[in-house]
Amino acid sequence: MTSTQSTPRQEMIEIIARIAGKDGDHPTNIPGLSIHRHSSPAKLNCAAYKPSLAIIVQGAKRVVLGGETLVYGASDYLLTSIDLPVLSQVSLASADEPYLSMAFQIDTTRIPALFGAVDNEAAKSSGSPRGMTVSKLTPDLEDAALRLLRLLDRSADRAVLLPLIEQEILYRLLIGPHGATLRQMMTAESQPHQIGRAVAWLKEHYSRPLRIDDLASRVSMSVSSLHHHFKAITAMSPLQYQKQLRLQEARRLMLEESLDAGDAGHKVGYESQSQFSREYARHFGEPPMRDIGRVRRSLIGSLGSEAEMLSEG
Prior knowledge:
Layout: H1 8-19, E1 24-27, E2 33-38, E3 45-49, E4 52-58, E5 60-65, E6 68-73, E7 76-80, E8 84-92, E9 99-105, H2 120-124, E10 132-136, H3 139-150, H4 155-174, H5 179-185, H6 191-204, H7 212-218, H8 223-234, H9 238-256, H10 261-267, H11 273-284, H12 288-312
Antiparallel strand pairs: 1-2, 2-9, 3-8, 4-7, 4-9, 5-6, 5-8, 7-10
Pfam families: AraC_N (PF06719), HTH_18 (PF12833)
Protein name: AraC family transcriptional regulator
Keywords: Transcription, Transcription regulation
């Protein structure tokens, strides 16, 4: 009699599908770990990515960063090394084979403790300075991610094993093809670290008028160096980054706080309503109120379908 043993990928699919029983984004009882399920492709939507590791175990997704599009699926992982506003879209999903993924937020304060364990040559090698990259998932990183998911059902083991698994995941990322950028983000006075400081200031003061020379002075860079390295890491200029922050926050205000387009635009720093509407339509594909109306109708439809399924059950 022979027994079949599931592969790591199959086990990850089983764990995520079981815990994420319905479509949506699901936080877990492990800090920083979320799991995601979608049964159909979706429209491009805005998202704010923090330093994190994202692994798709079934399906595919595309992320638009600045003017670039990253596509990744079940054999890849997405590494985000700095806070980035993006557009994201589940591109491959079905009811029979839903999109399933996990995202684990990186505690960047733990990275410097691993510098001594990372080979100097490996630390220097980096295929791209981008703060968001796609790489092939290695068996070692997949194994660590699986053991992290297993802890969702093993609360007694969590206190001891979670810090060790988290440390291993960080180590695997640091020795990976784009680990150098992650390392440099936490190296004081490095250019990526200075760009990280610029990003933090923009996130806190996105509604203020932006003077590039003032921002460059704040992070101890020349204006030309700030522009060059900011775009190399974020795929955007500082002004484009600020614009995306403003538009995402305005969309949130209209959806969650029911502000009208004029009030939302003014609150995030736009003085001209027409400029806000133009830039919003260029970014999201529709004028503000048409976009918000479509999203609300979609949410109502989803809730109605779910209620119908529950009543039939």
